[in-house]
Specification:
With about 775 residues, the chain is an all-alpha fold. About 55% of the residues lie in helices and about 0% in strands. It has 28 helices and 4 strands. The strands form 2 sheets. It has a two-stranded antiparallel sheet with strand order 1-2. A two-stranded antiparallel ribbon has the order 3-4. Helix 5 runs antiparallel to helix 6.
Length: about 775
């Protein structure tokens, strides 16, 4: 066996270690054959099913062939470990998840039962125990997180006592006893793998699902069961627990603490000032909570984070305004309807709900005082100001109440009386002297004025809310103290049940006749209205379809006998739609409901529509050609004479030979009403160059014989040049044919209007050959 085989089996082996000679004899082919043999021994005739995960097995259920093979094997322990781990790796390749978990459980149970059978030798016990925990570590690393581990966890819970045994030779342990240690074999590698899993769960906590939290809870419970309370790994060697405690655990009231922790000061203010303002007022000045030592640092910290919060908002608004200014340079359309906005908000609220940390809490005085880190993180959150403003509101209400007590004798007397009844030995004597004025000034400077001035320049809306809270609180105190809620003395609670309200009658009883010039106006009130009074003849579409079929069966539709009751037909179509929706394609504006029962009607209607569409297409093409011809004529008249072009023939320059075209010469657009208008760059017959002598152009009639022109040109013999009716095409025959058919294809305007009036049917009957020739020839 070589080093490569060890790595494949999952063994960290040093190639410098000398293995026994008998291990070197085993080759890869022998290992594979042994692995295949062990797999057959384990799973070929196995009767174990999925229930093996939730119950413990016995040695009798293990395959006897595998036990015999490993008990009498000539190979040492390392070779047996390689074979079992290779079997374990082969099991991991199985696609069926349940089969994979069951086979994992069978192989691990086999290791445990081999440990029990070889309990006489301590070395064998240690070997099979180490192999059992090694396979358990491999199973944790090969399963999917978290669902695969949750499916495999019943096996761990049912074999928890097997894990606790460790290297112990005892078959059973006492309740609560364990032989494992987190930093010693055989459990050390397992704890290392578990720590990696827990770290992965913490890092990806934002993507965690309920299954992740369930797995984390099961892992922690498993560690608590396997490790003893006095485990060395649980010792707080670095003092991490003490770092989370306040700096001063015991704090006397009359002792000033400088530089105390933020959470400690916050808790002091909550417990000694906000939650018991009356006790703070009537306490001796030397026993009160010193606001400068506790409240001032907390207020500085709170307002500092509030200032950063508003600075961030101001910067973000500035960026958004700049982006809006650049992206929306045009006027924004103002849509009157907001239904789309509401539907969009309702739709997206399901996909992107508001985070829980941004949702206001219903209880204003509810704070997680048991978790200092959570409280501090909430108060220092740069993106959520709810908890800071919650504390500011509580502090301002408390300060307002204390100011009312210190500044008003009636309010002080009222609270002193109530406080004396609950606190018999309290100092209820309130001396209005210099200390009282100093207390009022201190509260005003530290709380009321500072908060008002801070939010006045940053958040006017919240400052208005605080002003309304103070105003309503003072009115409530005045009403409670001075008037004693006497305004409610006249309120009488009902002693009897309220009379039953009669049901509202929505039926019309009667109206008097209104004289508006029409004595029959009062009859309008007698019309029956409502959905319940609408009579429905057919409740089912099947019955309506059968009745309509009988009605149209004996009718003659050769002539136009369609029903003009369109509203009744629409009503019948709505009833038939649910059952005969695929047959409604036979209904159109010409056939009506009769198209459902007479196919010839819908066929005739479709044929008529196709004929009309063809006529319409021909008309469109005709008028497009006509408009284009007029535009080209106007363009040709305005264009300058073209340059001379050599076409490689003996024909005089500027003429066409055999129907070939010259630049600036006769084109199909130059033809009008069956005539040809000919122009040439140098020699023009009725062209632009003869305008000085004869302004009227000369026209050659297309229907006459081909015109032969014999111009005298220097250095060339006089030739007869035959001009084709159309010039401008490379193919002479094709252009000649198209030119001869041009007059037939383009009728006059009066003739076209007559065709459209008569439906183009009469013209087709008179000259079908010309019609076919016209259709084949493109303009």
């Amino acid at each position: 066996m070589n080093y490569k085989t060890c790595v494949h089996a999952g063994i960290d082996h040093d190639p410098r270690v000398q293995l026994p000679v008998k291990n070197m004899v085993a080759t890869d082919s022998e290992l594979l054959s042994e692995v295949e043999f062990v797999q057959k021994a384990f799973f070929e005739n196995s009767i174990l099913d999925k229930t093996v995960l939730s119950r413990t097995t016995t040695a009798d259920e293990m395959p006897s062939l595998a036990i015999e093979a490993f008990s009498k094997s000539n190979f040492d322990e390392l070779h047996q470990e390689i074979v079992l781990k290779m079997v374990f790796m082969e099991i991991a390749k199985v696609e069926d998840h349940n089969v994979k978990l069951t086979r994992f459980a069978v192989v691990m149970d086999f290791c445990h039962h081999m440990r029990i059978l070889s309990s006489e030798s301590q070395e064998n016990v240690k070997f099979w125990t180490l192999l059992f925990f090694e396979l358990f570590k491999m199973a944790l690393s090969l399963l999917n997180l978290p669902q695969g581990h949750l499916d495999f966890w019943p096996y761990i819970e049912s074999r928890l006592d097997w894990f606790k045994l460790g290297f112990s030779c005892q078959s059973d342990l006492q309740y609560g006893q364990t032989a494992l240690s987190a930093i010693k074999a055989p459990f050390s590698k397992v704890t290392y793998q578990i720590n990696k899993m827990l770290f992965a769960l913490r890092v990806n906590s934002k993507l965690a699902t309920p299954q992740h939290h369930e797995l984390s809870m099961k892992i922690h419970y498993f560690l608590c069961q396997c490790l003893p309370p006095m485990e060395q790994a649980n010792t707080n060697k670095r003092g991490n627990v003490a770092k989370g405690l306040p700096e001063q655990l015991w704090d006397s009231r009359n002792r000033k603490i400088e530089g105390s922790a933020f959470f400690t000061d916050f808790q002091k203010i909550q417990s000694d000032f906000i939650e018991c303002p009356v006790e703070w007022v009537f306490s001796p000045p030397n026993e009160r909570l010193n606001l400068h030592d506790y409240l001032l640092p907390v207020m500085d910290e709170i307002l500092l984070h509030e200032s950063n919060f508003y600075a961030h908002i101001r910067l973000r608004k500035l960026r958004v305004e700049r982006l809006n200014q650049k992206s929306n340079s045009l006027d924004v359309a103002s849509h009157g309807s907001t239904s789309t906005v509401f539907s969009r908000d309702n739709t997206w609220s399901q996909f992107s709900p508001t985070p829980t940390s941004y949702t206001p809490r219903p209880l204003m005085l509810d704070q997680p005082t048991w978790d200092s880190e959570l409280v501090v993180s909430q108060l220092q959150d740069p993106y959520n100001d709810f908890f800071r403003k919650q504390f500011v509101c509580q502090l301002l209400v408390t300060a307002t109440m204390i100011e009312n007590i210190l500044s008003d004798d009636a309010t002080a007397k009222f609270y002193r009386t109530n406080f004396k009844q609950s606190e018999e030995e309290a100092h209820t004597k309130l001396e209005v002297n210099g200390s009282t004025e100093e207390t009022l000034r201190e509260i005003s400077e530290l709380i009321t004025k500072r908060i008002d001035q801070f939010y006045l320049s940053r958040d006017l809306n919240f400052q208005g809310v605080l002003s309304d809270i103070i105003k309503s609180d003072r009115l409530l105190t005045d009403l409670k103290v001075k008037k004693g809620f006497k305004i409610f003395d006249g309120f009488k609670f009902p002693t009897e049940h309220l009379e039953s309200v009669q049901p509202f009658s929505d039926k019309f009883k009667g109206f008097g006749w209104v004289k508006l010039g029409n004595k029959k106006l009062d009859n309008a009130w007698k019309i029956k209205t409502g959905l319940e009074v609408i009579k429905t003849d057919h409740n089912s579409p099947q019955e309506l379809f059968q009745d309509l079929a009988l009605e149209h069966q004996n009718m003659n539709f050769e002539k136009e006998t369609l029903s003009q009751d369109i509203a009744n037909q629409w009503k019948q179509l709505r009833i038939l739609r649910s059952q005969y929706i695929f047959k409604l394609s036979n209904v159109d504006e010409n056939t009506g409901l009769a198209g459902l029962f007479h196919e010839e009607l819908i066929e005739n209607s479709r044929a008529k529509k196709s004929t009309l569409s063809g006529i319409l297409q021909v008309a469109k093409e005709y008028f497009e050609v006509k408009n284009k011809r007029q535009v080209d004529e106007a363009t040709h008249d305005m264009s300058p004479p073209a340059k001379r072009q050599d076409i490689g023939s003996k024909a005089p320059e500027g003429y066409a030979v055999g129907g070939e075209s010259l630049e600036g010469d006769v084109t199909p657009q130059n033809t009008l009403n069956g005539n040809v208008f000919i122009s040439s760059p140098d020699r023009v017959v009725g062209g632009m160059s003869d305008f000085d002598n004869d302004p009227s152009p000369k026209v050659i009639d297309r229907e006459s014989e081909p015109t032969t022109i014999s111009p005298a040109v220097a250095n060339d013999e006089a030739e007869q040049v035959t001009l084709s009716p159309t010039v401008g095409s490379v193919n002479n025959n094709r252009e000649a044919a198209s030119g001869s058919a041009l007059k037939k294809e383009l009728p006059s305007k009066d003739k076209m209007e007559t065709e459209f009036d008569n439906g183009a049917e009469a013209e087709t009957e008179k000259d079908p050959e010309n019609q076919e020739e016209s259709n084949k020839t493109s303009i």
